[in-house]
């Protein structure tokens, strides 16, 4: 499903953010990626959706090697992955419905299919009643729900999230976490970088701890393992 083999990443400034990463993530897993700031978590995650390319090594996602994937094929890859960010990245001039429908319009789905799928994901994240609102009219938690709905509207096999609760208060973070749980329960793989110790230690899943560009720990049902 997702496999990294001896992945090494050196940025142009000389920083080594991945220093020989080997990992395998199977379909349906829920994986937390933890570690101190600057450890290489974002780099690890960005390489999975080809936002960054490794300097060497192989990254295979859904059978495709991203290390050698041609740039023109990247949009095709992205359609098979959902990506959720800490800062939501919604389009401010589109309303909730349009932000989610956009992903389907670019692949020219029929209006009927679009309506059905957008309505279904809005229902899943509990925002059907806010379909006509704009991002700046929503709370942070609601904006993240929209971003999650957008990430799954294509029915991706994998959802990758980079600190999705990083800008949210504890209660809202739990609501967002519950949505990821629901998505995972439907069979979607979740890879989530997080600093949320309480969530990691309460809802147990596989924990991959990265430090200095290396996987220092990889445990099923592991704990967060850092002070904060
Ligand atoms: P984390 O997500 O764990 O905080 P990152 O993957 O963002 O870690 O960063 C790992 C290291 O790579 C850090 O030293 C960071 O400063 C560096 N880094 C990240 N992105 C870039 C970049 N685009 N150019 C140069 N260095 C970078
Ligand atoms: P939360 O407690 O989830 O952070 P808020 O207190 O930010 O929520 O918002 C509560 C409700 O008020 C939400 O349903 C949100 O949609 C609405 N709301 C917040 N800010 C605005 C705004 N600027 N314009 C319109 N509605 C807003």
TrEMBL record:
Domain ABC transporter: 2-228
Compartments, record wording: Cell membrane
Superkingdom as given in the UniProt entry: Bacteria
A GO MF term: ATP binding
This protein's UniProt keywords: ATP-binding, Cell cycle, Cell division, Cell membrane, Membrane, Nucleotide-binding
Membrane topology listed for this record: Peripheral membrane protein
SMART domains, per database record: AAA
Single GO BP term: cell division
Membership in a protein family: Belongs to the ABC transporter superfamily.
Assembly notes: Homodimer. Forms a membrane-associated complex with FtsX.
Protein name (Swiss-Prot/TrEMBL): Cell division ATP-binding protein FtsE
Organism of origin: Chungangia koreensis
Gene: ftsE
């Amino acid at each position: 499903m997702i496999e990294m083999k001896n992945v090494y990443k050196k940025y142009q400034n000389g920083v080594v953010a991945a220093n020989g990463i080997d990992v395998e993530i199977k379909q349906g897993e829920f994986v937390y990626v933890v570690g101190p700031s600057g450890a290489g978590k974002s780099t690890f995650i960005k390489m999975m959706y080809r936002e960054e390319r490794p300097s060497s090594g192989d990254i295979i996602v859904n059978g495709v090697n991203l290390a050698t994937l041609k740039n023109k094929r990247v949009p095709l890859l992205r359609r098979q992955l959902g990506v959720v960010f800490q800062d939501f990245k919604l389009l401010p001039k589109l309303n909730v419905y349009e932000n989610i429908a956009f992903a389907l319009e670019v692949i020219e789905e029929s209006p009927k299919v679009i309506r059905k799928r957008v309505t279904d994901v809005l229902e899943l994240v509990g925002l059907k009643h806010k379909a006509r609102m704009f991002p700046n009219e929503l709370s942070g938690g609601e904006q993240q729900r929209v971003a999650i709905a957008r990430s799954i509207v294509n029915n991706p096999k994998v959802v990758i999230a980079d600190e999705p609760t990083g800008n949210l208060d504890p209660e809202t973070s739990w609501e967002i976490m519950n949505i990821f749980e629901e998505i995972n329960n439907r069979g979607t793989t979740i890879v989530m970088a997080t600093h949320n110790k309480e969530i990691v230690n309460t809802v147990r899943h596989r924990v991959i701890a990265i430090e200095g560009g290396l996987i220092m720990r990889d445990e099923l049902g592991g704990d967060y393992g850092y002070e904060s």
